[in-house]
Amino acid sequence: MSAGLSTVARHMAAARYHEADQALSRLIVGARQVASTHSRRGDELLTRAWVLATAVAVKERHPDVWSTSSLAVEAAERSQHPLALAMAARGRYICLRQHGQYRQARMVAEHAVADLADEELARPVVGHLLLESAYGAAQAGRAADAVELWERGRECAERGRRRPAVAVWPDHPGPLSRAQVERYALCIHHTIGNTRQAAVHMERLNAAAVDVPHTAARIRHDSAKLRRDVGDMRGALRLLQDLAAGTPQDAQRTSVRSMVSGMVHTAPHLPGLRSFAASLGAV
To answer: What are the φ and ψ backbone dihedral angles of 69, each rounded to 5 degrees?
Structure first.
């Protein structure tokens, strides 16, 4: 079970979402069987399965995300394992934030961070959760909170790099890298309207140097949004073309295709844009 779930996590990190989804159904059935006979260890595995299922559902805002995230929380609470609790809380937070339920999401994050602050095993995931919370605060218009939460997430990532024994966790998106921290800063400052500072963070990022395809895709997508919004349509198109070349399944996500479709309406005569949009099914 553990090896199978690790394979799914590698599919997610490589932005092979279809393969991850296909493997999960069987693994969830198996994890349920293990949980029914092996108590807490089984519930740790079941938490991982439901967290990964939530990550897949989030990609296309699938309605299953509500049930998978809730089931992850239930399994984590039965296991009482710090890492499982943190992973489930992060999945639940993303689900709520994605649906605009910022107050409820904030409560989930605050409780998880407070409860797990002294749990070293949970630290890598708590760092991710702090950065997710920072982005959620920016979306909710709480600029000062967003910056403060990002700083806490950055500090958590630095501590993890000094303590590699607790910096690793078994599932996507893995340990907090500097590139991930900078990407969140780009997103946060872009969201709160500070495009100049967002550009500073964007210039510190190099997707081609990132060895996790999913993270590279996120960097390219978020950088393309900023370039589009400051009027650099050519730069945005180049980034999206690189995204599609490196992670073709990620380029098929609704959010990417919607962005490309909008660019076609804004800059219909940009060379290469319409043919690229057609290749994604965005026109």
So the answer is: -70, -35
| Mean pLDDT of all residues in 251-266 | 96
Give the model confidence (pLDDT) of 128-161 as tens digits. Answer: 999 999 999 999 999 999 999 999 999 988 887 6
Q: For every residue of the chain, which 3-state class applies, written as one string?
A: CHHHHHHHHHHHHCCCHHHHHHHHHHHHHHHHHHHHHHHHHHHHHHHHHHHHHHHHHHHCCCCHHHHHHHHHHHHHHHHCCHHHHHHHHHHHHHHHHHCCCHHHHHHHHHHHHHHHCCCHHHHHHHHHHHHHHHHHHHHCCCHHHHHHHHHHHHHHHHHHHHCHHHCCCCCCCCCCCHHHHHHHHHHHHHHCCCHHHHHHHHHCCCHHHCCCHHHHHHHHHHHHHHHHHCCCHHHHHHHHHHHHHHCHHHHCCHHHHHHHHHHHHHCCCCCCHHHHHHHHCCC
